[in-house]
Amino acid sequence: MPEKFRAQARARRAERRAHADYTGGVYGSLLAASVVVGAGTLGAFPRLELALLLLATGVVFWLAHVHAQLFGARMAQRSLDRGTVLHVCREEWPIVEAAVPPTVAVLASPLLGLDVQGAAWLALTAALTGQMGWATAAARRAGASWRQVALTDAVNLVIGLLIVALKLALKH
Which of 30, 40, 157, 161 has the fewest CB atoms within 10 Å, i.e. is most exposed? Predict the structure, then answer.
């Protein structure tokens, strides 16, 4: 690949990062945490089932968000073309990305000697850590002061603690 094309590709990636929207990441992390809490009793292969449930839920919600963007607000504003569709797919992809760390946590849990409940707690921790990470990145990218970042983190911590309280209350 000629250097000119590599430079253009790098410039496009930098431009996308500069205008990145982390909403999907925060949302996807909360979604993953909710899946872990709501999973309850799983079948014969609980780790595999939870991992698949996390990824499948992320993909389904990503598709739902893409659909809503394309056929809701975007369609009213302009006609759809391939570029618009790909842009929306990329824009909403953090919903799926947010499901990956909790899924990896579930799949890696046997290496850590964790039982299924331990795997669920590890996945929940990964999801909530991701939620705070995405929110912090969003606040920093938006130019928030450190005080505003701390406030964002505090709000996300409270939301995370509410999810943990829900998991404790449900006691699957």
Answer: 40
Q: Pick from 47, 51, 91, 50: which is nearest to 69 by CA?
A: 91
Rounded to whole angstroms, the Cα distance separating 130 from 162 reads: 16
The SS3 assignment for 53 reads: helix
**pTM for the whole structure:** 0.79
In whole angstroms, what is the distance from residue 30 CA to residue 99 CA?
9
Cα separation values, 91 from 25, 58, 68, 151, Å: 10, 14, 13, 25
pLDDT digits (tens, 9 = 90+) for 32-60: 988 988 887 677 788 999 999 999 999 99
Scanning 39-81, the segments in alpha helix (DSSP H) are 46-68, 75-77
Contacts of residue 122, defined as CB under 8 A and 6 or more positions apart, other chains included, come to: 105, 106, 108, 109, 112, 114
